[in-house]
Design a protein that fits this description.
The protein is an all-alpha fold. Helices cover about 80% and strands about 0% of the residues.
Length: about 120
């Protein structure tokens, strides 16, 4: 196996790990939305809350859903940019760090919004 093949496998492992977490978060958000809708409808059906309460509940639900969806989209975009930067580094012939170091770089870049991974040859 060539070094480039090994580096591409590192990227594939990172992508697989990220995709698993992304699917987990998406299922939690979807489950929360469905559960909340069922709760609100059930409470309204049993006359525990009135129509005003239903409206307020749905309003909070929609606002929360848009927040989580936009946060997940931003996270996904940052991840795609990070993966693209890694692939560009491989095309330039650079050797990638270990998977753990790449995960740390990804977390750090997501926190600082610096989504392009730094080249190992670049001076800071």
């Amino acid at each position: 196996m060539t070094r480039q093949d090994i580096d591409l496998q590192k990227i594939q492992v990172l992508e697989s790990s990220y995709q698993g977490w992304f699917n987990f978060k998406a299922s939690i958000v979807a489950g929360t939305i469905v559960g909340t809708v069922i709760l609100i409808v059930n409470m309204q059906y049993q006359n525990i809350i009135n129509l005003y309460g239903v409206f307020v509940g749905y309003l909070f639900l929609v606002i929360g859903a848009f927040y989580f969806i936009s946060d997940m989209k931003e996270s996904h975009d940052e991840h795609i940019s990070f993966m693209n930067g890694l692939i560009l580094r491989i095309e330039e012939g650079e050797k990638l760090e270990s998977i753990e170091e790449l995960r740390k770089m990804h977390k750090k870049s997501a926190k600082t919004k610096n989504i392009k991974p730094k080249s190992s040859n670049a001076k800071t």
